[in-house]
């Protein structure tokens, strides 16, 4: 790959400690560290509820920090579960703070929905990220259904098809930076 380290901001849509989505991001960061320097964003729950009245030149400091991390990253990975046929509220809230900016415009982005079903949540994630003008395609988005049976407590992918799909996904994602 390139001589420059590619900086990736990884965002999990789950606020659960050690969730399946967090484990997937850890898997990616550990198995592809020769390609990427991955920072897993830990501040999702600290971002205040979106309020257009506060979306000014001086937004809340947590929002400003989140936006700066996105802006400074070469690419963004989002891995989220589906909650009640939608995105988790905390992830949607964080993304709403980005609508008035251009920080996702043409930003190389990888999108993973890992959940029991995930179809509707994934569809919404794709729509939101398209609205934010993030750069992704069919090869840099992935739906993993039945995730709990495909990853163990230690974060090891125990399903060969899922492991292969993740490897293909990350290879396509990495190729965007060549």
Question: Would you give an account of this structure?
Answer:
The protein starts with 5 loop residues before the first strand and ends with a helix. The radius of gyration is 15 Å and the shape is globular. By secondary structure, the protein is an alpha/beta fold. The protein has one domain (6-175): Flavodoxin domain (Rossmann fold, 3-Layer(aba) Sandwich), CATH 3.40.50.360. The protein contains five helices and five strands. The longest helix has 16 residues, at 160-175. It has helices at residues 20-31, 61-72, 89-96, 119-131, 160-175, and strands at 6-12, 36-41, 75-80, 108-115, 141-145.
Write the layout of secondary structure elements.
Elements: E1 6-12, H1 20-31, E2 36-41, H2 61-72, E3 75-80, H3 89-96, E4 108-115, H4 119-131, E5 141-145, H5 160-175
Parallel strand pairs: 1-2, 1-3, 3-4, 4-5
Features:
single chain, 178 residues, alpha/beta, Rossmann fold, five-stranded parallel β-sheet, 5 helices, globular
Strands, count = 5
Percent of residues in helices comes to: 25-40%
| Distance N to C terminus | 7 Å
The whole-angstrom Rg is 15 Å
The top level CATH class name: Alpha Beta
Strand order in space, largest sheet: 2-1-3-4-5
- Indicate the CATH topology: Rossmann fold
SSE succession: EHEHEHEHEH
Shape, principal axes of CA atoms: globular
* Helix vs. strand class: alpha/beta
Named at the architecture level, the CATH assignment is 3-Layer(aba) Sandwich
Q: What's the name of the CATH homologous superfamily?
A: Flavodoxin domain
Number of domains: 1
Kindly state the mean pLDDT as a whole number? 95
Poorly predicted runs? none
């Amino acid at each position: 790959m390139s001589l420059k380290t590619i900086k990736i901001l990884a965002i999990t849509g789950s606020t659960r400690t050690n969730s399946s989505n967090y484990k997937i991001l850890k898997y990616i960061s550990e198995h592809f560290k020769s390609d990427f320097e991955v920072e897993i964003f830990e501040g999702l729950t600290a971002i205040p509820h979106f309020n257009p009245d506060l979306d000014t030149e001086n937004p809340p400091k947590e929002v400003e920090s989140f936006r700066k991390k996105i802006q400074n990253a070469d690419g963004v990975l989002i891995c989220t579960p589906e909650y009640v046929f939608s995105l988790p509220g905390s992830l949607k809230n964080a993304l709403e703070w980005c609508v008035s900016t251009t920080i996702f415009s043409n930003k190389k982005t990888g999108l993973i929905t890992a959940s029991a079903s995930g179809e509707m949540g994934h569809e919404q994630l794709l729509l939101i990220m398209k609205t934010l003008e993030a750069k992704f395609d069919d090869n840099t988005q992935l739906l993993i259904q039945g995730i709990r049976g495909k990853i163990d407590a230690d974060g090891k992918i125990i399903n060969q098809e899922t492991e292969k799909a993740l490897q293909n996904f990350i290879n396509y994602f990495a190729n965007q930076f060549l």
